Amino acid sequence: MTFLGRDLTDIHCFTKDELFFILDKAADIKRAIEARQISDYRLAADRDLIAALLFYENSTRTRTSFEIAALRLGMRTTGFSSTEGTSVKKGESLRHTLDMYEAYDCDAVIMRHPLDGSARFAADHLGIPVFNAGDGKHEHPTQTLLDLFTIREHLGRLDDFDMGIGGDLKYGRTAHSLVIALSKFSNIRLHLFSHQDLALPEAFMQTLVERGVSVETYDDFAEMAPKVDIFYQTRIQKERMPDLSEFERAKAISEFTMKMLNTTRQGFGLMHPLPIDKSAPSISPGIDAHEKALYKRQAGNGVPTRLVELALSLGLTGAEFAGESWEPPRQDEAFIDELDVVIKPRRTDVSIRPIRENGVVIDHVQPFLEEVLIRLLGVRERRDIYRAATVKSIRRPGNVKGMLMIEDREFTEDELRAIAAVSPGCRVNIIRNGQVARKLQLRLPERITGIPQMTCPNKGCITRIEHEESVRPIMIRAGSDRVRCYYCDQLMTSAGMF
Ligand code: NCD
Questions:
Q1: Do 11-141+303-313 and 448-497 show the same overall fold?
Q2: Mean pLDDT over residues 340-346, rounded?
Q3: 448-497 adopts what CATH topology?
Q4: What is the mean pLDDT of the chain?
Q5: Which of 174, 176, 241, 301 has most ligand 1 atoms within 8 Å of CB, for mutation?
Q6: Class of the 336-445 domain?
Q7: Which residues of 190-206 are buried (b: 16+ CB within 10 A; e: fewer)?
Q8: Which of 169-178, 391-400, 414-423 has the highest average model confidence (pLDDT)?
Q9: Which of 14, 31, 244, 482 is least surrounded by Cβ atoms within 10 Å, i.e. has the fewest?
């Protein structure tokens, strides 16, 4: 996939080569801006390009640095920095607001929105590049690019170092994108500090484990400080917490103090995406002017990195890139294995009465999930005749399995997909004239969509019905019986989505 037209919704979709390419270009741009070599960075001077900045949440740095990047590039900007005064206040959906900026022939959308997964939705919905300036508690990939830039600027490398990340690892989107990005480089030793309530969510931890990143977690902040080359502190995300006692507990132990700074390694760098909440300072006042405090320079790096991101997606630079490009993973659509049917005499030793003539038997269902299948297949609403139970397997009495038998019923492909999603590994026996006519073994599909009862358990996800954004959930396989939400990356068991 080339850079031209590319969305920047999450940090997954860059190879290491692409990340280095962006950072190298940003270093050139930074030098050019400092020297005011205008022709080296005003790459859109004769293109009449307009960037729409749609900020549904507060922002100082991200919005301003994107705007300055666009202006220096030679673009003009439009949009809003708060929903106050917009039709969002009249109840307009995200979809309809986005449509307008495309209708006005804007060339790029830069969006910050409170719902997790809103950036992916926007990117899929629009034909112009979308830049995620923060979607809920999910990701903040353009922040990560400036973070990587700053780390490399300070240490001279992006591999083989000790990286501490602290503060709010649960709701902090900057930490989420950063850990994913760091997992692409070699020999990074991650040291995580947070209140136990604010630990890194499982989906991100799983990616780190899969990629073999060494992760150590601490419950004592002072113990971590001397062990890292860079410490990335974050603000406790009070506004995202359903319960403010969580904030009070975390605040009490999350301040990075001058005493801690004095125990850090030589060459140590203290980073922070900012802002610092003065009522709960994540870094003690007085540290700002210290030579180890990098966060002002870090914020400044938002302009050259974002300028390059815009320029690449708009085709103003980057045609010479020759490294490994990111490719979206291929999807294997098959989820049904047809098993051989062995004709056997009717069993009389079974505890559930068999299908009389025609119907289906779903067997080897994960125990106690028959009820989920009954709801999903609308068995009661249709007044189907059925029998369901969690039973002991006759052949292996130690094994317990669920079974569901429905008289006079056949399944559509969508229904089979839904059954496979609820209980991967189950078997569907199609009974005709009292005999098994087909035996299907179902695997978890790669992509699960179009099932009305399916919900993402993350209450902040754009697909949740209460947000009224009419975005249908899509789940992606993440292991033999696990799935993740395509939009917000929430990880769940396959049964957890019903
Ligand atoms: C962060 C954000 O919005 O996620 N700010 C930023 O973009 N620099 C961090 C925060 O708000 O705490």
A1: no
A2: 79
A3: SH3 type barrels. (2.30.30)
A4: 95
A5: 174
A6: alpha beta
A7: bbbbbbeebebbebbbe
A8: 169-178
A9: 244
If you classify domain 142-295 with CATH, what class do you get? alpha beta
Reply yes or no: is the peptide bond before residue 275 cis, omega within 30 of 0. Answer: yes
- Residue 198 · residue 237 · CB < 8 Å: no
- 459 included as an active-site residue: no
Using the atom order of ligand 1, give the atom closest to the CA of residue 174: 4
Closest CA to 119 of 192, 62, 50, 185: 62
Identified catalytic residue from 25, 30, 61, 306? 61
User: Which residues touch 243 (CB under 8 Å, ≥6 apart)?
Assistant: none
Q: Are 112 and 174 in contact (CB under 8 A)?
A: no
The predicted model scores a pTM of 0.93
pLDDT computed for residue 348 by the predictor: 64
| pLDDT for position 463 | 98
Residue type at 313 in one-letter notation = S
List, for residues 86-136, the tens digit of each pLDDT value.
999 999 999 999 999 999 999 999 999 999 999 999 999 999 999 999 999
**Nearest ligand 1 atom, CA 173:** 4
CA 70 to centroid of ligand 1, rounded, Å: 20
Active-site residue, 112 included? yes
Report domain extents, the chain: 11-141+303-313, 142-295, 336-445, 448-497
Amino acid at 378: G
Lining ligand 1 with CB less than 6 A are 61-62, 134, 140, 143, 173-174, 234-235, 273-274
Which atom of ligand 1 lies closest to the CA of 168?
Answer: 12
Q: Check if 297 is active-site.
A: no
